[in-house]
């Protein structure tokens, strides 16, 4: 995600688990659920394997109704379990048998199956729900983005509970089938591969499949009128879509920008190792939003994205999407690396080096500057709930990117390249913590880096300007 202050002006100028076959099994990262930042998010006692989401959306009054089938495996005997959902529920079944349910809080759906669920035995849970997502608030967030012609479900860290029931924490990744039904003539776009479309005369249902594990906040759908380009370029299958809510020029400009996605993905693959998913691309919405988001396989932008923004969101396909955070406090692993890859792209294409960028930024922030105050490995200081502006503090991005650039200087190009490739390979389709990255950096480089990481991430002071700190 990018929520930087500068992004709004740039976009305005631009018009505005069970793993998939062949994937690499990641080691357990001991995620914390409930999460210290968001204690109501996520639930213990089970692992979701698959979501089959079937939603119907009415543009006229912005009403959503749906049925989601969840395949999950209890990790202990369960007499009850919870799901995260903000809409009203009319029925729940477990393995085809009606279950009792209640909503003790707006965000929580508590399910009591007819008989206890046995540990280790997969079950199917069906939830039927409906409501007006635009009227719902959670932790001060109103995340439903829609007008009478377009809707896009994009936000971080919360979005899923506005449109499907889930175990809404990044540590429980699953595969997805997403079917969206809308009035005939409108398109529906989501993650992964387009499976097919079918209609009954008045409505059209579009089916998308995400065959690789995905966190719930990265799942999305967009519906409305879009100009679409699909094909193959630079070794990748792509699917690009731009809202027709722009002028004809704006729509053409958006498509021209998205055509760079496959080329940039190929460059990132050369830097980081195999691209983790089956296709790439992007979507540009005309709805009023001041950030971009790295939705898995298909980032969403508010206006024709600049090259640096494409690099940032596509780098997240490795850092954040394939290798996801185990806890929300680990967010710098997503944003720091995506920021670094922006600077690395400039360097690789004949511009300023990452080291020069690092030193210039370092000189611009003297000792005593608030820039150095924040512990970016725990930006909310483990308080709950964590405010969005704290989780995505600009310093998490910039100091995170500086930390990566300084680490490259400290351990050298060869070890640094090996480290990045090993990190995304070992943790592919899984979750990871900051401490695991620090340990892997020491293992790959053979160096003791505790003082380096403490200085750059946690000390609250400007790191010393010495080679030991990458300066």
Automatic annotation (TrEMBL):
Its cofactor is Zn(2+). Its EC number is 3.4.11.2. Residues 282-456 form the Peptidase M1 membrane alanine aminopeptidase domain. It is an enzyme of class 3 (hydrolase). Pfam families: Peptidase_M1 (PF01433), Peptidase_M1_N (PF17900). It catalyses: Release of an N-terminal amino acid, Xaa-|-Yaa- from a peptide, amide or arylamide. Xaa is preferably Ala, but may be most amino acids including Pro (slow action). When a terminal hydrophobic residue is followed by a prolyl residue, the two may be released as an intact Xaa-Pro dipeptide. This is Aminopeptidase N. It comes from Nocardioides bizhenqiangii.
């Amino acid at each position: 995600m990018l929520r930087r202050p500068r992004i709004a002006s740039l976009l305005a100028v631009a018009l505005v688990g069970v793993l998939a076959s062949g994937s690499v099994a990641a080691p357990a990262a001991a995620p914390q659920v409930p999460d210290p930042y968001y204690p109501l998010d996520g639930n213990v006692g089970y692992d979701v394997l698959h979501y089959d989401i079937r939603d119907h959306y009415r543009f006229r009054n912005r009403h959503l109704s749906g049925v989601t089938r969840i395949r999950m495996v209890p990790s202990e005997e369960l007499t009850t379990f919870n799901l995260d959902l903000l809409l009203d529920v009319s029925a729940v079944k477990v393995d085809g048998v009606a279950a009792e349910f209640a909503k003790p809080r707006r965000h929580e759906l508590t399910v009591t199956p007819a008989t206890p669920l046995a540990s280790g035995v997969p079950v199917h849970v069906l939830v039927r729900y409906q409501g007006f997502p635009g009227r719902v608030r959670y932790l001060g967030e109103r995340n439903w983005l829609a007008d009478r012609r377009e809707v896009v479900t994009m936000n971080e860290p919360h979005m899923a509970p506005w449109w499907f029931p889930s175990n809404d924490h990044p540590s429980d990744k699953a595969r997805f089938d997403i079917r969206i039904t809308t009035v005939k003539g409108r398109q529906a776009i989501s993650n992964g591969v387009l499976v097919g479309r079918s209609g009954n005369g008045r409505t059209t249902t579009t089916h998308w499949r995400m065959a690789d594990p995905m966190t719930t906040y990265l799942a999305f759908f967009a519906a409305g009128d879009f100009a679409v380009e699909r094909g193959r370029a630079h070794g990748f299958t792509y699917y690009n879509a731009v809202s027709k809510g722009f002028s004809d020029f704006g729509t053409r400009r958006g498509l021209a920008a998205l055509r760079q996605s496959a080329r940039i993905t190929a460059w990132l693959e050369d830097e980081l190792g195999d691209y983790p998913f089956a296709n790439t691309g992007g979507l540009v919405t005309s709805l009023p939003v001041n950030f971009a988001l790295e939705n898995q396989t298909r980032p969403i932008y508010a206006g024709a994205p600049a090259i640096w923004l494409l690099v940032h969101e596509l780098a997240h396909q490795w850092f954040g999407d394939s290798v996801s955070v185990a806890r929300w406090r680990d967010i710098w692993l997503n944003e720091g690396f995506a920021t670094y890859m922006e600077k690395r792209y400039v360097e690789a294409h004949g511009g300023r080096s990452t080291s020069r960028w690092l030193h210039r930024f370092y000189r611009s922030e003297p000792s005593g500057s608030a820039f150095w105050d924040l512990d970016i490995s725990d930006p909310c200081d483990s308080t709950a709930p964590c405010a969005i502006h704290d989780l995505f503090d600009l310093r998490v991005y910039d100091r995170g990117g500086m930390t990566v650039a300084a680490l490259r200087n400290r351990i050298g190009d060869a070890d640094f390249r090996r480290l990045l490739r090993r990190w995304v390979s070992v943790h592919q389709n899984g979750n990871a913590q900051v401490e695991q990255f620090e340990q892997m950096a020491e293992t790959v480089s053979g160096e003791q880096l505790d003082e380096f990481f403490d200085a750059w991430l946690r000390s609250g002071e400007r790191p010393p300007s010495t080679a030991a700190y990458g300066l």
